[in-house]
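Before relying on records like the one below, remember that each one covers exactly one chain. Contacts with other chains, cofactors or solvent are not represented anywhere in the record.
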Amino acid sequence: MAEMKLPTRAEDFNEWYNQLVLRAELADYAPVRGCMIIRPYGWTLWENIQQALDRRFKATGHVNAAFPMFIPRSFIEKEKHHVEGFAPELAVVTIGGGEVLAEPLVVRPTSETIIGHSWAKWIKSYRDLPILMNLWNSVVRWELRTKLFLRTLEFYWQEGHTAHATAEEAQAETIQMLDIYADFAVNDAAIPVIRGRKSESEKFAGADMTYAIEAIMGDGKALQSGTSHNLGQNFAKAFEIQYLDKEGNLQFCWTTSWGLSTRFIGAIIMVHGDDQGLILPPKLAPFQVVIVPIAKTDEERAAVMEAAGRVRAELVAAQIRVKLDERDGMTPGFKFNDWEMRGVPLRIEIGPKDVAKNTVVLARRDKPGKEGKSFVSQQGIVAAVAEMLETIQKALYDRALAFREANTWEPKDYEEFKKAVEKGFANAYWCGSERCEQSIKDETKATMRCIPLDQTPSEGRCIFCGQPAKEKAIFAKAY
């Protein structure tokens, strides 16, 4: 299967993506429409994402917990914006153990409501605050149009939930978590992202304010890659989450929630991949290095495997994730193509000549062919590999950033705007009107992705209606 060529990204980006997910053994379709099975290679990638985020969460004082997947229907209905936002996507259980349930149960679409119920019992005094909590779980949203990793009925994610004594603390937490997502995206996934604020129509159901990190994919479309919500006192009032302040007065808490899901794997595929397959950033790749031994005779094979085993042991001791490809009956060329498709950042080739010279060949995944090959000594192999992995990590980020900059336009008028959103990002003044936002969406299929936080205060004219505007927004077609 690995020998069949993928469609090129230029020919059919959508089919390139679908086939690559299957052939690289990241995931497979489940028997239930819209669900997916994450295979070991894909799950290892998700585990590495988990670890990178979990480390950051714990460093900022958050602790992990677990809540049930079944939520009483009445909980969802307590916060009116929340129920309006999620009603079409809910999966509801009405029968359990052969009996009709007295109250239907919702399969968790997100956990704000059940957490609000619990916090109302747990929080009594200002001394109980802040609560800084995170969950690693799966959630169910009954999506109509699905795509592996990007949009499935059930998906895995982390959902952070915090409660605070003041509005200022809640807002600081919301921005802190947005920054953590951006730091992870840039430094671990090598994906440049725009931190921004969502419009009223695009914010989370039940939030006062939603922030997101937005990234451009290889076809010029946007992908919302992580969100952070300031929930104000909406859920606190719905669930009576109150505390006694220092003066003995009863106050409502201020809460936040934030999440990043397995759709981020889709971002990694679409930002870095090429016509040969995946290109995985070294910090997250399941295998950072693959060793391919090359030998024709049994005698050559013995010497080559001895050297390959020694190199592997040194890399493992240095905590580099490495795979020694010992598969029988497959040519080196087949193995090269197979691991290129799976996106392993660095390949080490060892043949009889390399054994004789005490060298190895390093081949970079991000630079196919001769350009990406170099010869290094087996002595000091760990340092050479570690340095090369750092070089690849930086090169992937630089390339992704250059692509975004080349595909971001600042249109002077609406005609230029319409052309821009066909190709990539349009960074344009917007008056803040929901009517303009909806008209743009109806006419161009582009949505307002976010109002970037990193913009110099300025004034201009709304790209659609021409009225005065004080902020620029990113518009794009999106997944």
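The CA atoms of residues 135 and 298 lie 52 Å apart.
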